[in-house]
């Protein structure tokens, strides 16, 4: 335990680096504070005169804390966050400076956008873009800089980032949900989506990390024979946390708390050296910003402890990779969680309506949910029996399923109390309060009062997934509201609508084992899509039904969807290209020379032994095997080398990505197998870099 955990009071420093509600109440004039809170709570626009006042207060608050610069912090399509720092200094006539920050600077920034991917959206002559403050996500201080969370657009109005569509999707979901709630007599005027992202990660020793070019260049190991021990003893999951890791977690919590991030749960995960950190849920856009920030801080704090935090989805072959569980729900401005079954019949039937709307959304747009989690890194996990399959399905749990079945069939059911109910909208049994049956193999599981989407990759932003989730649910709710508003026989019509919707979409519900091979066949029979890789999934972004969906809500235009597909697939190809080139580098400069050196050593030993009249057959066998592996490896190097060069001749973004997947990636696998076999033959002290055993067990 670090000494400060004993002497410092968390509530005293929680959020001390955030321009949060408390700070605003203290520093802002009343009317400015009110205007800003209104913007945050109700999404109303901010006037420029108010912005000036807020900017000045923000600057004073920051300058008192030693801050000299500000930055508009945004999330371009690269998946990383971006920032350009400007100082507050402004020259005065007497040759001195003052610290200044205007409302205009707060609200809008103009970074040169030409080097950010746009997926062909902008002609090069129109490279300018601008960033716009998202006042619903609080500004914060990091490294003597004031960070202002912003959205990023081009001057022609196209969105170039991941935040803008998320904000739009939250807005459309709110509108449609409010319409539906009204039908049940609710007076709510706004619905907010909430997310609690559980983050998995690995920690390795920095000194070992520095000796592995694959980790340095790609974030994952590209070579490595299995260690004698993996995760088979299941002893790491929730196991004792080592002192060094505990110190890291303590320090990390403190840094996150200062930034107002509600870091809550920390534990060891399944694989050796793997851990998890879960914050308490918050509004989607804030959760997305905080998750991005959290990932950054996780890496930074690790370095202070002589560790490296690996956020890659699959740092090590043979043990579990890392994901991110997106716990998602919706709540009203009156504090009602729409996925909480509730106690009264009104709450129950409203819950059931929302639930059926989600079933419809997930079935109709399973392709979008799937592609929202697609990346080169996550391709290693989905469907590999450590993470949910690539097939999107919903887990309801037995109790909820019984209720849905009864609703659909109109039949009597006997709940536990022995009382009989006819399930329709007029009579509902009490709902299960806590759904403790956690099916870990399901991608999209109901977990009591929220849905947990478990397919996300650990390194990815949660923005894209939540943009899609919000939009597809908004779509179901819009259809429901269109049908039910003005209905003369509300209960009858609602009942009919729910039954009909359930019948049409229940194929997406699967309560069984998602890792079972039989499920793949069953899902195919049900007609559910199974997009194995990023290359299979991504092009569906621009399917006609999906373009229609996004355009109808003004979340994305067709052009923006095309540009996103382009940028994501292009990124995929680049990632594989870097991995292939890193492998070639390591194989040519480190592994093959080691193999050759060892074969030479064996040959000398054979000669010496023969000269001494000794039996050299063992060395002979080993030398033959090592030489064979060297030759296979060398051939694999030549093959991969050519394939990487030939990639330039492939035309088209999809075709190039497919080439990298089908040709380059499979050759990488093949090359690795020779190298890993060689590793098991070569003496430990000759192997050129730390092994899996070193990396995973010497932390
Ligand atoms: P588990 O590891 O069993 O999946 P955790 O307790 O670690 O569960 O994580 C659950 C996550 O779900 C937490 O981040 C929690 O804040 C979040 N959560 C709880 N309620 C909601 C909600 N209404 N909306 C969104 N997220 C929620
Ligand atoms: Mg979870």
Write the layout of secondary structure elements.
Blueprint (H helix, E strand, L loop, with lengths): L2 H5 L2 H4 L7 H7 L2 H13 L5 H17 L4 E5 L11 E3 L1 E3 L5 E3 L3 H5 E2 L19 E5 L6 E3 L2 E10 L8 H21 L7 E15 H4 L3 H6 L24 H16 L4 E6 L5 E6 L2 E2 H21 L2 E4 L12 E10 L12 H20 L1 H7 L21 E2 L2 H12 L2 E2 L7 E2 L21 E3 L4 E7 L5 H22 L5 H16 L11 H10 L7 H4 L6 H10 L4 H54 L5 H30 L6 H27 L12 H6 L2
Parallel strand pairs: 1-8, 15-18
Antiparallel strand pairs: 1-2, 3-4, 5-6, 6-8, 7-8, 9-11, 9-12, 9-13, 9-14, 10-11, 14-19, 16-17, 18-19
The chain binds adenosine-5'-diphosphate and magnesium ion (MG).
Magnesium ion binds next to loops.
Walkthrough of the structure:
The chain is of the alpha+beta class and 699 residues long. It has three domains: 10-161, Glutamine synthetase, N-terminal domain (Ubiquitin-like (UB roll), Roll); 169-556, Glutamine synthetase/guanido kinase, catalytic domain (Creatine Kinase, Chain A, domain 2, 2-Layer Sandwich); 571-697, Up-down Bundle (Four Helix Bundle (Hemerythrin (Met), subunit A)). Helices cover 48% and strands 13% of the residues. It has 23 helices and 19 strands. Strands 9, 10, 11, 12, 13, 14, 15, 18 and 19 form a nine-stranded mixed sheet that branches. The longest helix is centred in the last third of the chain and has 54 residues, at 558-611. The chain starts with a helix and ends with a helix. The model is unreliable at 412-427 (pLDDT under 50). Bound molecules: adenosine-5'-diphosphate and magnesium ion. Adenosine-5'-diphosphate binds at residues 194-196, 198, 265, 278-281, 325, 327-329, 337, 449-450, 452.
């Amino acid at each position: 335990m670090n000494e400060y955990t004993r002497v410092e009071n968390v509530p005293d420093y929680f959020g001390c680096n955030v321009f949060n509600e408390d700070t605003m109440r203290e520093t802002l004039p009343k009317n400015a504070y009110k205007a800003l809170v209104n913007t945050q709570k109700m999404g109303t626009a901010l006037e420029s005169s108010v912005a000036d006042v807020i900017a000045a207060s923000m600057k004073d608050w920051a300058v008192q804390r030693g801050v000299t610069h500000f930055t508009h912090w945004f999330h371009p399509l690269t998946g990383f966050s971006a920032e350009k720092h400007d100082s507050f200094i402004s020259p005065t006539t007497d040759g001195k400076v003052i610290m200044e920050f205007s409302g205009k600077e707060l609200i809008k920034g103009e970074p040169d956008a030409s080097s950010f991917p746009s997926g062909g959206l902008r002609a090069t002559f129109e490279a300018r873009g601008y960033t716009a403050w998202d006042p619903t996500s609080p500004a914060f201080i990091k490294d003597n800089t004031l960070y202002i969370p912003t959205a990023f657009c081009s001057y022609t109005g196209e969105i170039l980032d991941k935040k803008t569509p998320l904000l739009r999707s939250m807005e459309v979901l709110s509108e449609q949900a409010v319409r539906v709630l009204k039908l049940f007599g609710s007076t709510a005027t706004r619905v907010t989506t909430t997310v609690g992202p559980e983050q998995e990660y690995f920690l390795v020793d920095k000194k070992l990390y520095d000796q592995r070019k694959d980790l340095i260049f790609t974030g994952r190991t590209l070579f490595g024979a299995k260690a004698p021990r993996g995760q088979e003893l299941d002893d790491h999951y929730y196991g004792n946390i080592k002192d060094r890791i505990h110190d890291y977690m303590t320090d990390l919590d403190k840094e996150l708390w200062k930034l107002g991030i509600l870091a809550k749960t920390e534990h060891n995960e399944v694989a050796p050296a793997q851990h998890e950190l879960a914050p308490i849920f918050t509004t989607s856009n804030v959760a997305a910003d905080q998750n991005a920030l959290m990932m950054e801080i996780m890496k930074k704090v690790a370095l202070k402890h002589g560790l490296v935090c690996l956020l890659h989805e699959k740092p090590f072959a043979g043990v579990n990779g890392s994901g991110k569980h997106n716990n998602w729900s919706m709540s009203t401005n009156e504090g009602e969680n729409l996925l909480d079954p509730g106690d009264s019949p009104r709450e129950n039937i409203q819950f059931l309506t929302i639930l059926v709307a989600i079933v419809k959304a997930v079935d109709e747009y399973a392709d979008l949910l799937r592609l929202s989690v697609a990346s080169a890194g996550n391709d290693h996990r989905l469907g590999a029996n450590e993470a949910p399959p690539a097939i999107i399905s919903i887990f309801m749990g037995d109790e909820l399923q019984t209720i849905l079945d009864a609703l659909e069939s109109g039949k009597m059911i006997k709940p536990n109390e022995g009382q009989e109910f006819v399930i329709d909208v007029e009579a509902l049994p009490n709902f299960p309060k806590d759904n403790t049956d956690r099916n870990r193999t399901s991608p999209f599981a109901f977990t009591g009062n929220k849905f947990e989407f478990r397919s996300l990759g650990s390194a990815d932003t949660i923005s894209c997934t939540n943009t899609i989730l919000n939009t597809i649910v908004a779509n179901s709710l819009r259809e429901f509201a269109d049908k039910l508003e003005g209905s003369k026989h509300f209960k009858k019509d609602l009942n009919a609508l729910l039954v009909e919707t359930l019948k049409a979409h229940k194929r997406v519900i699967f309560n069984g084992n998602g890792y079972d091979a039989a499920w793949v066949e069953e899902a195919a029979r049900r007609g559910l899509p199974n997009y194995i890789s990023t290359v299979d999934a991504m092009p569906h972004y621009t399917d006609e039904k999906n373009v229609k969906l996004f355009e109808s809500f003004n979340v994305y235009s067709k052009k923006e969807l095309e540009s996103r597909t382009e940028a994501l697939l292009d990124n995929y190809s680049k990632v594989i290209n870097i991995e292939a080139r890193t492998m070639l580098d390591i194989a040519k400069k480190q592994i093959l020379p080691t193999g050759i050196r060892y074969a030479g050593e064996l040959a000398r030993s054979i000669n010496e032994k023969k000269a001494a009249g000794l039996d050299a057959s063992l060395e002979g066998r080993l030398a033959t095997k090592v030489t064979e592996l060297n030759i296979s490896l060398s051939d694999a190097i030549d093959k991969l080398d050519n394939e990487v060069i030939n990639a330039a001749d492939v035309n088209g973004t999809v075709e190039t990505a497919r080439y990298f997947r089908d040709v380059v990636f499979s050759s990488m696998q093949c090359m690795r197998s020779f190298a890993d076999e060689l590793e098991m033959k070569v003496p430990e002290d000759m192997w050129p870099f730390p092994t899996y055993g070193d990396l995973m067990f010497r932390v």
